Amino acid sequence: MQYVNCNLCGIDKPSLITVQNGYKVVRCVNCGLVYVNPRPTSEMLIRLYSDYHKRGGKDEHSWTILMKDNFKEVSAFLNKLFPERGKLLDIGCAYGHFIKIMEGHGWLVTGVDPSSEAVASARKKDLRVLETTIEDAMFPEASFDAVTAFYVVEHLADPFTAVKKIFNMLKPGGIVVLRIPHTTPIAKFLAFWGIKNNLYDLPYHLYDFSPKTVSLLLEKAGFSLISVMPGMPTLPKRYAERLISIASGDFARFLFVVSMGKLLLPGTSKTVIATKP
Questions:
Q1: Could you tell me which residue, 41 or 172, shows the higher pLDDT?
Q2: How far is the C-alpha of 275 from the C-alpha of 277, rounded, in Å?
Q3: 3 within some domain
Q4: Any idea what DSSP says for residue 232?
Q5: Could you give the count of Cα atoms lying within 13 Å of 1 in the half-sphere of its Cβ?
Q6: If you count DSSP H runs as helices and E runs as strands, how many of each does the chain have, helices first?
Q7: pLDDT tens-digit profile of 108-159?
Q8: Residue 135, domain member (yes or no)
Q9: Cα separations (Å) of 21 from 92, 153, 197, 199, 205?
């Protein structure tokens, strides 16, 4: 196991939130970042991720269904923002579903993912995918017009360094789009009522970002025009989970619209958009 300081402010002032699956979830008293501490080493995480995409009976088709509305929403946004299209990097591309969509819209897309099985599947579709992590990927500066990362940054050992690397890989005026969970408010609510849960998905998720902390992360990396909003809900395989996801996601988007972007429902996943000046 590895003990770490806060990735956002660098200070070692953790306050315990909960313990799940034998791992401690803490909150930085200084900046509010929620993270796992201590956590598995990099070698342990590599072994844990060997069958990550198959957990819970998932397969390639269920991943496609899970993310299809997210992908549709983000593709429409990027297509509108870049009518001439451009070069895009999809981090954690898995089986390449988003890459396929964006290539169909005229983008030149590269994907990276550490899963050999997922990469092999993507390459069978003739997609440009590298078997690597964002930490180890090598791209020249100012290579991309847009970078996407759907449910990725919460898995990274060093989110700040990764986000700074994304900043450097983008062209001036380039856009990063992140999709992140926001687990802590729901976990605290359930704990208050004595309801056990595994919502943090430990040890796969190493961080839990709030709108505040993800904005601070992007600002620290150099990004501007940061927007945090509720995106389209995911569609889990289990029917009950899907209903909850749709209901909470729709309610979150309703609150966001009627409040003119001022109300973000705690506990729902967020879409984060930022620009490189």
A1: 172
A2: 6
A3: no
A4: P
A5: 10
A6: 8, 11
A7: 999 999 988 899 999 999 999 999 999 999 999 999 999 999 999 999 999 9
A8: yes
A9: 25, 21, 10, 11, 12
In the block, tokens 């990396």 appear at 221
Specify if 206 maps to a domain.
Answer: yes
Residue 57 has pLDDT above 80, yes or no: no
What is the Cα–Cα distance from 94 to 125, expressed in whole angstroms? 12
**Any domain includes 92:** yes
Boundaries of domain holding 67: 52-275
Q: Which of these, 188, 190, 197, 46, lies nearest to 116 by C-alpha position?
A: 46
Structure tokens at 132: 């690597």
Give me the residue label for tokens 């029917």.
239
Domain CATH number, residue 168: 3.40.50.150
> Does residue 110 contact residue 89 with C-beta atoms inside 8 Å?
yes
Q: Strands 207-208 and 34-36, how do they pair?
A: antiparallel
CB-based contacts of 252, cutoff 8 Å, min separation 6:
230, 264, 265, 268
Total domains present in the chain: 1
In angstroms, rounded to a whole number, what is the distance separating the alpha carbons of residues 245 and 232? 9
Examine the pLDDT at 46 and tell me if it is beyond 90: no
Each residue's pLDDT tens digit, 229-258: 999 989 888 888 889 899 999 999 999 999
Q: What pLDDT is stored for residue 112 in this prediction?
A: 97
